[in-house]
Design brief:
5 helices, 2 domains, Rossmann fold, Tumour Suppressor Smad4, alpha/beta, 17-stranded mixed β-sheet
C-alpha cells in the first residue's frame, strides 16, 4: 500500500500544517501522494505530491486520509461510495464519530496501515430522488441522513414504504438516517442510536404537531417515498448530509433507498460502546466488587 490520497478541512490552518507534515512523512517512506486539488491555501507545502480532484482518487489511491471532522469526511466519502478503498479519518472536529483517530496517534496509525494492519467497517449510504409528476428533478446520495424540512411554516407530508401508506404528519420535517448518521442530527431530534452492524434506517420526525408520531426503525432494504402534501409559500427543502439538494413544492415526491457503501478505517482496539460512552459523556462507572 503506497498510493495515498489526502483531503483536509478547507481554510483550516491547523489541518493545512498537518497536511504538509503528513505529506512529507509519506514521501520519505516512498509513498506516492495525491492531494485534493482544491487546497489552494496549502500551496506552501513541500513539493513531491500530485494534485488531483477527490472524485478521481477512488480509482487511484489505496488509502484515503481525511484531516478534519465528520463533515469533511462525509464530503470526501461520497466520491468513494461503492469503492473498496479504505478511508481513515483524523479527528480535527468536535465529537468525531467517524473520524475517531486522534491527531496524536496519526503517524502510528498510518504506519500500521502501511504495514497492512488495519481494521475496517463498511457503512451504507442512501440514494434520494425528487420527482415532480413523471419528471425526475434531482438526485444525490447521503452517508448520514436525508432530511425533509420546512422553509417557512409547518409542512405536511405522507410516508409510504413500497407503496404502502405508513403515516401522515404535520411538523417541521423528517430525518431518514443510516446507522452512521444515527449519532448526528437524528440523535439530536430524539432518534435512536443504531449500532453500525444493524442493517436498518431510522425514521425520525422533527417537531411533529401531534404526540403520536414517534421514531421508528425499518429494514434498510425498504424503499421509502415521502409526498409533500401541504406547504406554505416557502415550500420545503431536501438536504443530504446537511447540504441542500433542492427546494420542494407541494405535490413533489422524494424516493429514498439504500445505496452503495464505503469502507472506514478504525483503530484496532476501538470499542464501539466505549466510543459512545466517551463521546456522549454517559455517566456511571462499574462498581467495584
Amino acid at each position: 500500500m503506497n498510493r495515498i490520497g489526502i483531503s483536509i478541512k478547507p481554510n483550516d490552518a491547523r489541518a493545512c500544517a498537518l497536511l504538509c507534515e503528513l505529506q512529507g512523512w509519506l514521501i520519505e517512506r516512498q509513498c506516492t501522494v495525491y492531494v485534493d486539488h482544491k487546497l489552494e491555501s496549502c500551496m506552501g507545502c513541500p513539493s513531491g505530491c500530485e494534485r488531483l480532484p477527490v472524485s478521481e482518487m477512488a480509482e487511484k489511491v489505496e488509502l484515503m486520509i481525511v484531516l478534519g471532522g465528520d463533515g469533511t469526511l462525509l464530503h470526501a466519502a461520497r466520491d468513494f461510495i461503492g469503492s473498496d478503498t479504505p478511508i481513515l479519518g483524523i479527528n480535527l472536529g468536535r465529537l468525531g464519530f467517524l473520524t475517531d483517530t486522534p491527531v496524536g496517534n496519526m503517524f502510528n496509525v498510518v504506519e500500521n496501515i502501511l504495514a497492512g494492519n488495519l481494521k475496517t467497517k463498511r457503512h451504507f449510504s442512501l440514494d434520494a430522488e425528487v420527482w415532480r409528476g413523471e419528471e425526475r428533478l434531482a438526485g444525490g446520495c447521503a452517508m448520514n441522513d436525508v432530511v425533509l424540512e420546512r422553509r417557512g411554516k409547518m409542512i405536511g407530508f405522507e410516508m409510504y414504504i413500497h407503496d404502502r401508506f405508513v403515516f401522515k404528519m404535520r411538523g417541521d420535517g423528517l430525518i431518514l438516517a443510516t446507522p452512521a448518521g444515527s449519532t448526528a442530527y437524528a440523535l439530536s431530534a430524539g432518534g435512536p442510536i443504531l449500532h453500525p452492524a444493524v442493517d436498518a434506517i431510522s425514521v425520525v420526525p422533527v417537531c411533529p404537531h401531534t404526540l403520536s408520531n414517534r421514531p421508528v426503525v425499518i429494514p434498510a432494504d425498504e424503499q421509502i417515498e415521502l409526498r409533500l402534501v401541504e406547504s406554505s409559500e416557502g415550500g420545503a427543502l431536501l438536504n443530504l448530509d446537511g447540504i441542500e439538494l433542492l427546494q420542494l413544492e407541494q405535490g413533489d415526491r422524494v424516493v429514498v433507498r439504500k445505496n452503495g457503501s464505503i469502507s472506514l478505517v478504525y483503530l484496532p482496539d476501538r470499542h464501539y460502546y466505549e466510543v459512545l460512552r466517551t463521546k456522549l459523556k454517559w455517566a456511571g462507572q462499574v462498581e467495584a466488587t
